[in-house]
Amino acid sequence: MATPVANLVIATNTWNDLINTLNTLCTLASNFLVTANNLANGSVTTGNGFVNGIFGANTLVATTLRSGNVQSNGTVLTIFSPITVGNTRHTDLSVATTNTSAQIIDSYAIANNRVAKFMIQITCPTIGWQGTELMAIHDGTTASLTEYATLVTNTSLATSSANVQRGNLNLIFTPTNANNTVNIYRMAMAV
Predict the structure, then answer these.
(1) I need a surface site. Which of 86, 90, 135, 140 has the fewest CB within 10 A?
(2) Tens digits of residue pLDDT in 116-141
(3) pTM greater than the 0.70 cutoff
(4) Whole-number Å distance between alpha carbons of 149 and 25
(5) What are the residue ranges spanned by the domains of the chain?
(6) Which among 72, 70, 76 is positioned nearest to 181, based on CA atoms?
(7) pLDDT tens digits for 79-101?
């Protein structure tokens, strides 16, 4: 994005012109530049930023991801914009699994949400489909999960469990086949 900034002419510009141009440049930098540092344990970068194109990182840590695609080795995670209606937060996401080990497919902060309902669709190209609903609740240290309304076209494709670790409730997915696409819709009630 090109934003015009007045040229400075030392012979004719006043000190006030210099200050105004410098303030304009600082405002543009704080509103349109994305900066990050290279500290090993990270740091806070403030301000607004936008990347038109590809943004890469070895590790991406965020309190809230609003939209976009996040890719990592083994698991591909696509996050769509969360929607808040009243005190209920709705989130859609899709995960592609590549093995049969237990893996966290969704996680949310227990400080923000006590109860969550999940609608899950599992697609396995070689076996079929499974749809299920889950309810999760926690008491701050332990998560409880119930699965109901499960439908399969051929055979069960996965089992689910939940735990509380490091301030998050984790939804854990254990597939029976390596290659699945899991679509998750979560509604979580605010604490």
Answers:
(1) 86
(2) 999 999 999 999 999 999 999 999 99
(3) no
(4) 58
(5) 1-55, 68-190
(6) 76
(7) 444 444 455 556 777 888 888 99
